[in-house]
């Protein structure tokens, strides 16, 4: 008579083999799920940085100074490397005029800002200096935000219908790594000098 207590060695090995295969399949599935989760989180973070940069651009454009008297240089200045916008700045601490510069370097769109000029004449003089050579930049400008994975940016003004001394709006176009079509954003200026 046979003793029917317990499992044979072969039955135990088959059970362990089946458990091993199931464990391997589960770990592969979980690894794939974690990779998808990480990829989605990275895309969300990238999307958020794009939204913040576009909000900065929108605000800079809406507060861009329009030359009502058209005696000053345009408040939108574009060089080979930098694009500068003179905007009206207002906060609890200060109010005045500020210069915002955009450039692409090291595959990042970088936004630079100057401290506000409280005196209109000082701001107008700085605008005249900057309009002579926008690529020299401004020593007082500091990096305020950057958007990674940008290959190229193009900011085009919408000029007033009767002159090219007052930009009434802007269009931003960004070519980014891994994207087929550029991102674009447009706005209308509301500020006055």
TrEMBL record:
Entry's Pfam families?
N_methyl
Q: Please, which domain of life does this record's source organism belong to?
A: Bacteria
Q: Which InterPro entries does this entry report, sorted A to Z?
A: N_methyl_site, Pilin-like
Signal sequence extent: none
Q: Which NCBIfam families match?
A: IV_pilin_GFxxxE
Can you name this protein? Answer: Prepilin-type N-terminal cleavage/methylation domain-containing protein
Q: What organism is recorded for this protein?
A: Zwartia hollandica
């Amino acid at each position: 008579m046979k003793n029917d207590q317990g499992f044979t060695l072969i039955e135990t090995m088959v059970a362990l083999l089946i458990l091993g295969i199931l464990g391997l399949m589960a770990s592969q599935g979980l690894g794939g799920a974690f990779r998808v989760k990480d990829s989605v989180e990275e895309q969300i973070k990238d999307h958020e940085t794009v939204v913040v940069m576009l909000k900065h651009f929108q605000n800079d454009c809406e507060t861009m100074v329009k030359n009502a008297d058209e005696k000053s240089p345009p408040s939108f200045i574009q060089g080979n490397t930098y694009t500068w916008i003179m905007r009206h700045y207002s906060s609890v601490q200060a109010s005045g005029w500020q210069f915002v510069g955009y450039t692409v370097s090291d595959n990042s769109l970088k936004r630079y800002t100057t401290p506000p000029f409280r005196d209109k004449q000082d701001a107008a003089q700085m605008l005249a200096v900057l309009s002579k050579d926008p690529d020299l930049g401004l020593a007082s400008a500091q990096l305020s935000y950057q958007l990674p994975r940008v290959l190229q940016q193009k900011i085009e003004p919408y000029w007033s219908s009767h002159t090219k001394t007052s930009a009434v709006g802007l269009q931003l176009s960004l070519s980014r790594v891994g994207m087929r079509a550029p991102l674009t954003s447009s706005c209308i200026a509301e500020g006055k000098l």
